[in-house]
Amino acid sequence: MNPLSRLFNRSAWKWLYIGLGVKRWLLLLSLGVMVLALGLAYGLITLYRETTPPAMLGYLTLQFIDRHVRVVLFVVAGVVVMTIAIVKLSESLVSAFASADTSLIDILYRKRARRKGPKIVALGGGTGLSTLLRGLKEHTDQLTAIVTVADDGGSSGRLRRELGVLPPGDFRQCIAALADSEPLMTALLQYRFGAGSGLEGHSFGNLFIAAMAGVTGNFESALLESSRVLAVRGKILPSTLQNVTLCAETRNPEPPANGLQRVAGESEITQRGRPIERVYLEPEHVSAYPGVIRAILDADLIIAGPGSLYTSVLPNLLVEDVRAALKASKARKVYICNVATQPGETDNFSVADHFDALTQHVGKGIFTTVIANDNWQVRFPEHAQSQMVRVQSAPPDFEMIRGDLVDESKPWRHDPAKLAKEILEWYNSLHE
């Protein structure tokens, strides 16, 4: 496509959209060019009046054409040349940030659209929350991720016990999902050392956050500075700064029933694989991180899930201040049901079972809308212990939004783009 045809294609008109911060500088540039042209015009007039200009100059200034036609030709040619020059100059300046198949104006337009996007708060942890954030960050920059601090397994658990920091694993995944340089940054932050005394099993991202906590003096400053250094879109906040343990009351699935058994520790709950009656925090009465309360009260949309129901989503909602803020918030609230069941935690659960467990812990009336997957025509790996979460019925106590949310490459997970599209279409439909 030649420069002139690109000039008049559809995306070129986006330069005229309100709020891009471009038109004012184009107008100033045009004013400068006009003043310069006026000065040159005065110089030419003086030259013609006081001297005999060369014949070549007469041809260059189109003296053989009627004066009124000359004015129109020069104005049109000037505008076209200026616009082509501005567009090409801008593309050259931002070539380091724009891909070959993306125009500058499209980048500016998307950035402006994200700044005007809804204020969204997402509560959860693990892979589910990072998947959600990866999709939503293309639609809004006003994202706040509220992350559980109950993780006690793997690298996070080791750092928590040895250094006394909050478990960094879920925060690492959120940072990787929201970082602007995502593909490379994700690979770096998720890199796990396979050998080395003391390093084996640790991920680089966990060590990075733990080191940043040591440099800045506390965990919340570490998150803030890590987000700044890695150009993260949005905010990532812990639900509480207190050291909590996730506990569960489980029941024996086989007769004879021998009552409820207490299980302590997020990783231990899933490993036991017994049906969960309820989960709770120890200590039960902990204060929420202040920024979390502000974010919830200021939000336009609040999302719980996707993610492990009992060990990722509910731990955030068990913080009393968080539940109180959710009740007080005027935002729309929606629960994202998992695509597949989680072995040892939600075996054989339907959508209604997930929602019942949610309301049992946080109370009725807070979350009244559920977004669930309705594409069940996928094949799981033969060794998989999970199964698709089915919609067995449509209970009257919540609104259900259905859609194809499956990641075709990993059918037990949500597709980030599909999920974000479904959420925002539902949200925007409420404001039409």
Explain how this protein is built.
It is a single chain. This protein has 432 residues and is an alpha/beta fold. It folds into two domains: 3-108, no CATH class; 117-149 and 239-429, Rossmann fold (3-Layer(aba) Sandwich). Helix content is 47%, strand content 14%. β8, α16 (351-362) and β9 form a beta-alpha-beta unit. It is elongated.
What is the topology, as strand order, of the major beta sheet? 3-2-1-7-8-9-10
> How widely separated are the two ends?
38 Å
CATH class categorisation of the largest domain: Alpha Beta
Instruction: Report the order of strands and helices.
Output: HHHHHEHEHHHHHEEEHEHEHHEHEEEEH
The H-level CATH homologous superfamily of the largest domain, spelled out, is: CofD-like domains
Classify the secondary structure makeup into a structural class: alpha/beta
What's the β-strand tally? Answer: 12
- Total count of domains: 2
**Shape label:** elongated
In round numbers, the mean pLDDT is 85
The fraction of residues in strands falls at: 5-15%
- Uncertain spans: none
H/I helix tally: 17
User: From the alpha-carbon coordinates, what is the Rg to the nearest angstrom?
Assistant: 29 Å
Q: What about the largest sheet? A: 7 strands, parallel
CATH architecture of the largest domain: 3-Layer(aba) Sandwich
Helix/strand layout:
Layout: H1 3-7, H2 23-50, H3 55-60, H4 67-93, H5 104-115, E1 120-124, H6 126-136, E2 143-147, H7 154-163, H8 169-178, H9 182-190, H10 204-216, H11 219-229, E3 235-238, E4 245-251, E5 260-264, H12 266-272, E6 276-282, H13 290-298, E7 301-304, H14 309-317, H15 320-328, E8 332-336, H16 351-362, E9 369-373, E10 399-403, E11 406-407, E12 410-414, H17 416-429
Parallel strand pairs: 1-2, 1-7, 2-3, 7-8, 8-9, 9-10
Antiparallel strand pairs: 4-5, 4-6, 11-12
